[in-house]
Design goal:
- This protein is α+β, with helices and mostly antiparallel strands.
- It has one domain: OB fold (Dihydrolipoamide Acetyltransferase, E2P), CATH 2.40.50.140.
- Helix content is about 35%, strand content about 35%.
- It has helices at about 1-25, 30-35, 40-50, 95-100; strands at about 55-70, 70-80, 90-95, 110-120, 125-135.
- A five-stranded mixed β-barrel has the order 1-2-3-5-4.
- A hairpin with a 7-residue loop joins strand 4 and strand 5.
- The radius of gyration is 18 Å and the shape is globular.
- It starts with a helix and ends with a strand.
Amino acid sequence: MIKRISFFLAAVLIIASVTLAQSNSLSFTEVADNLNLNKKTSLYVKTYWQGIVGQEVYWIGKVVNVKGGKGKAVVYIADSNRTLYKGYNIVLETYDMESAAMLEVGQSAKFKGLLSDYKGKQGHPIIVYLNQVEFK
């Protein structure tokens, strides 16, 4: 009887841990580290990305630049916890032109969006792309 209860409690804890992990947003640092070809194999990176692409994330970073056109804006963000590429390492695509137009260089921005793409080569910084971005 005690073994059954212990087994049941262990199963409940595992399920709770997995559910909690899935409900928490990935951090940029975690994503960048797992896409880093200097530390991970190309197979690992490919498999990891397939598991997270399309996931919604909530991040914060400093505005580097904002470009607009054709009804959407592209916002370049720097998360200084990881190496920057030309001053940024996150690229946001948003249709919220009004909010994007209000952003200023150097401003801290909170946003949520869907992981859509990344660029990363061995020896180069990781750039993560988000789409359907909303600013908080």
